[in-house]
Every structure is written in C-alpha cells, then in structure tokens.
C-alpha cells in the first residue's frame, strides 16, 4: 500500500513539474471556489429564481383598499389616453386601427403580473410602430400579396418576444448596458423627427402625394413642394395640434398661478388626447353623416371585439424575410423599455430588475401574437402620466386593459368617423417629447464630447437615411469608443504631495500621490509635486489590465524607465560588434554629453504599481508584466523589485502569483501592515484555521509562523519617511492543543512589549510585495533604502 502511495506521489510531482506548478505557493482563490459561487445552483437559489419570475406574488397578498383606489384612478386615466394613441400608432405600423387596440389590451394585462415597475405602461409606442411599419412595407415589396400586413407584424412580435424572453430567462440583460445614454437619446431624437416629418403630410391631407416612408429630409422637401395642394384634412389636423398644445400649456400654467387647482388641472391635461379626439370626431360625424363618400380621410370601419385571435403565421420564408430586421426591432424593445423603467424607478425610489422586465416584455409579445398584437414596449408619455396619477402597484394595468376592452366592444362603431389628420396631430404631439432638449444635448457635450458626437451622428443618420442606420451607428460607435477607452487608458506616473488640515493642531501631515510632471485637471496646479525617492517609479492604472491595452502600458512603463533612470551597464565601452543590432549607441560627438546626462540619473530600484483602478487582469496582462520586468531589469542590469498595492480581487492576486509576482524575499526591512482583531470563538475564516493548523507541530512545541524585523531594519531612512516604525505581528503557538495570539510592538530601540490588543497581518505574509496602499508600499521601500 505504501509503495502505491509513493508511486502516486511521484506521479503527482512529475505532473506538477510538467504543468509548471511550483512546489510551494501562497494560498489563493481556486477555480473550484468560482464554480461553486457562480455555477453550482442550490435549492434555495433555484426556488428564488422561480418565485422571482412572478413578482406579483410578493405584493398581491398585501393588496389593500388604498392601493386599489390609486390603481383605479391611474389605470382609467391611462386607459383614456391609450385608446386614441393606439389607434394613431397603428397607422404608423401600416396596420388597421384595431391592431393597435389588440396590442394595448394584451400588453397592459400581461405586464401587471410580470412587472417590477409600478409606473411603466406597456403598449404601442411611436418608434416601435414606425419600425414595424418599415418592416411590413419592406416585406410586402418583396413578397407582394403572399402575406398580409397583420401576419407580418404578429410574426415579428412573436420572434422578438422569444428573443427578449430568452435574454431575460438566461439573465444576460446586462448586454444592453453597452449602449450609453447619448446613443439612446440620439436615435430616439432622430426617430421622433422621422415620425413627425412623416405625419405632417397626413396632417395637411398630402399623404397620397408623396412617400412618407422616405428619408426624413426628402419627406420635408416634398411636403414643402406640395403645400399648395393641401386639402380639407388640414382643417382637422392643424387645429387639433394647436388645441393639444393649448390645453397642455394652459393646464401646466394654471397650477402655478392657482396651486389649489393643481390636482384637477393635472387630470384635465391628461384627458386632452381623449377630448381632442372626441371633439373632432363629432365634427367629422356631423360633416360626413349625409355623404356616402367621406370628404376627409377617416379611420374607417373598426370591427368590434377580438376578431383575430389565433396562432400567428410563422413560416421559414416569412422568417427569412424579416430576419434581417429582428436585431434592430429587438434593440428598440430592450432599450426603450429598460431606460424608461430605470428612470421612473430612480424618480420614485425603487429599483427594478432589468432581467425580469425583459421577461415581462417577452411574455407580452409572445402571448400578444396570439391576439394579433404587433410588437409593443414601454411608453414614456403614458408611464409619466401613470406615475403622476398616483399609481400604487403594477395592478393598475388591469383597469387600463378593461378600458381598452370596453372601447373595442362598445365604441368601435364611433371610431369610423375619427379623422386621420387628427390622429396625425396626436402622433406629432406625442413624439415631440422624445426629442432631446438643447439643455440635455449640451449636457452630453459638457460630460463627454466624444459621446456628444455619437448623439449627433445618430440623429443625422436617422434623419438623412433610416432609423435602422441610426441605431447601427449608435451601436458601432459606442462599442468603438468603449474599446478605445480600454485600449488607451489614461494611467499616470505619480509623485508625492504632503497635505495637512488648515489648522495644523487638528490633524497630522500625510502623503498623497498625484500625477507627476503634468496637470491632471483636478488638483491645484500651483502646488509642486515631489518626485518619488530616487530609483523608484510609481504608476497608477485607470483601467483593467487586459489584452487590448497590455502592450500599450508595457511600452509606457519601459519608455518612462529608460527616460528617467540610467542604464545599469556602461554601454560606451562595449565594442560595436557586441552591441545589439538595434542599438547603434551614441554618436561620438555627443557621447560625452550623453554620458554626463545619464550619470546624473538614478539607477532603477523598484517599480510600484497601483492596482486600485484594475478590476480585471488576464493572461496577456500578466505576460506583459513579465515582459516589462525582464526589459527594465535588462536596462538596470540588476534585479528590480515589483510592488503592487490596491489589489481589489482575489483573482487578480491569483493571476499575479501565477506570473511569479508578490513572492520572494525583499532586500530587507519590508514593513508589515497589520490590523487589530477581536478574539472571539468561530471568528476565523477556514483559511485562517488551516494556517493555524500548519503552525502546530506534531510534538506540540512552540512554532512561530510570523517573523519580526530586526532593529537594523529601521536604519537609513531618508527625509520625509518615518523614523519610528510600529509593527504589530502575531505569533501563533501550539500549547496543549490551543493557539495563543501575542501582540508585539517594536520601536527604533528594538524593544518589544506585549499589547492588550491582538493584531494580525492585514495581507498574507507569503506575498511581501503586495501592499494595502501606496503609503505602505513606499514605506517598505524606505525601510530597505539603506541596504540598496
């Protein structure tokens, strides 16, 4: 049995040598830990996942009369706005008006059971309706009458719903975070301009004279050319638009002048859409009731009830026809809804679950396709109305759905006389709120000029081409900007500034580290920055150290070292034949001056890397650190210490250890950062317990596992460093099966005394080149300076 064990041990050692595993290495986080934390699902986590799919289970048992009143008021108010908007948005989608009502009915009902936002109102929206109309038009051009517009739209809703549902179920909703706010505002603004320009011809009765689906600038030019041909429809469009804005500004101004009328004014303003539709529908009815042929363009016959319930048509050919448009349609569903939900969550003090919101949108569109609904998502205008109406829970969508059903079954005959020009006025009035204000646009410029260019580009692409091109521009430029920021990070070489409170007696002087030799735009430019101790280079990262930027940072570090430190080996005496092929050496005329300049520079001792801004470190980054170490050591012709501070992740520590960093024996006198501990039972981690077990020898003798520096460690301190070091170390002894902690204080005289407060090293002593912060790293170098 022992021979088998020895063979196994020998085989294991051989495998470790082949894999390059060191015989002894500091403890670090393991891959098993990552798998257990991220991939292994426990029963409670599975249970929470399933329950989380139905958020209404959390608030429904606590539903009460107060919530019911608030939800009824908000739901009915939104319903009275949703019905006319649904009729008008169906026009944008190139669908009969009833399909807007189908989408509204199923959207608000489904969302009530899956939502994590109480304020968002689901249903047809302008941008998604416009994109649906563009897709319907494109498929009809290619396939003629083989498919109807509703079949195309419902198939699109089902496919987009499945994609969004999958994103939510697999919890990958974070992908939408790659699109910044300026990009979203850019294509939303461009889309709003596109929609408004496309509705002006219908507002003036010119819709049949030009292509309203052309590029925005072409629609504007053609509309201006055809102004002399305006028809009677303009009498139902322009006054309706004027009335909408008049009511809006009147009821916005009224509460400022008469605060006691604020609540009635708000609800009257919310009902302006319904009032305008009713008013102009009555006028249209009186004008056309005795004419067989309507004198203006009307909505026409709207069938009562749900007449088109059934399985959506999904064929391979139809999927191929709409396949190229699915990415853009899906992006619109995701971005518009999540941005609205997050906005109202921040406004009203609650946090949404983005993945669950995507599940709600996915269920809404997949199930809605059975009721012939076209793609729908969150509406900003209706969500704002719902929020201000005093909504209490997502259940407010139920009375909204009831309002839509009542309209479908009871009011369908009255929809016949609604003027198309009035619906166009409603659309223009609604999308005007999507246009970014000058203040918001200038805010993008002030925060980030590059992101402002993304915003402007998205608007221009949407106006001069299509909204799809605007979305693709936003995506592409956002990704390029993100990659550029990662690939060219703005790291800094640091120097030291001593600061103190304005009243010296109230505080102590301390060191802070700021960019050296350049004004960073943050600190006061009139304060001089002291260079680090001679031969020490300090560099602070501002991004993760990954393969896109590893070579760039390597080049910066090596270039800086060669510029500010002298070569360790005098190359002036090296024959030309022994020089590297790429090192011609100094010209004879400049050799002496260059030698004197180099002689005044210090010789490189150590490189200190501040990893406070590093969230991730990959293989390429580690390899470039190794390359950097090799290059600077070749330049200095000596061993150069690499110190690291501010390591935020155990995986970064693991990667650095794997690259050979952090370990070894410093020259001498490395300070040990310590922290007090409270001796309590069960207060140690499993790692601490394992370390203690290793400290206890088999014979029960006292075995210290931490050391302490000698008094010589504190000699040779330069100006500005401390002349007295206090170190708390912990010695663990095995005595009678127990572990004893002893606090030790050491001063410049070498004396030590036990402290009442126990302490332990803050960082693992096996990695003396890893430090908590820059001050600790520089202190350790100060201690060893005298032994350089």
From TrEMBL:
- Keyword line: Membrane, Transmembrane, Transmembrane helix, Transport
* Annotated GO CC locations: membrane
Q: How does it sit in the membrane?
A: Multi-pass membrane protein
Q: Which InterPro entries match?
A: SLC26A/SulP_dom, SLC26A/SulP_fam, STAS_dom, STAS_dom_sf
Which residues are listed as membrane-spanning? 65-87, 99-116, 152-176, 182-206, 227-246, 266-285, 391-411, 443-464, 470-487
Q: Where is this region: Disordered?
A: 568-597
User: Which intervals hold domain STAS?
Assistant: 534-661
Tell me yes or no: is Coiled coil among this UniProt entry's keywords.
no
Subcellular localization? Membrane
GO annotation (BP), single = sulfate import across plasma membrane
Source organism, top-level taxon: Eukaryota
User: Which Gene3D superfamilies is this protein grouped with?
Assistant: STAS domain (3.30.750.24)
Where is the major localization of this protein? Answer: membrane
Q: Name one GO molecular function term.
A: sulfate transmembrane transporter activity
Instruction: Tell me which family the UniProt entry assigns to this protein.
Output: Belongs to the SLC26A/SulP transporter (TC 2.A.53) family.
What biological function has been recorded for the protein in this entry?
A: High affinity uptake of sulfate into the cell.
Give the matching PANTHER family: SULFATE TRANSPORTER
Protein's recorded name: Solute carrier family 26 (Sodium-independent sulfate anion transporter), member 11
Origin species, per record, is Tremella mesenterica
